[in-house]
Amino acid sequence: MRTLMVDSSYWITMSRQGYDPIAHLAGAAQGRDLAICGVIRCEVARGVVHEPALQRLRRFWDVMLNVPADNRIWEATEALLWRMDRAGRPIPLPGALIACCALRIQAAVLTYDRHFHSIPGLVVTADPMA
What we know:
Blueprint: E1 4-6, H1 8-16, H2 21-28, E2 34-37, H3 38-45, H4 51-62, E3 65-67, H5 71-86, H6 93-104, E4 108-110, E5 124-125
Parallel strand pairs: 1-2, 1-4, 2-3, 4-5
Helix pairs in contact: 1-3, 5-6
């Protein structure tokens, strides 16, 4: 099974709909790795209101595969943004960084954001069990 990079839109949407994203992801984690990067952590954490909820998320994130944003990731992100802009399909900087992190580890992106679908070579899903 393919590794899943769990995008911030998944965490946020599930929480807003009253679901526990950790509980939903626990099943998906059977037999595959779940991945995260710093920008996803920051995007999700900034919206968490209560400290105990944030600490619970951090404990879960800390056991996920973390993809660091080194210089190669930033160069790939810069190149992706440039190509997408020239193709008339601009995407947000955080999305480009997340996509490059996922591409580095050959992960699918678990997301509800549509802009990921326009990125060449990126596998995108809205189903954690896919």
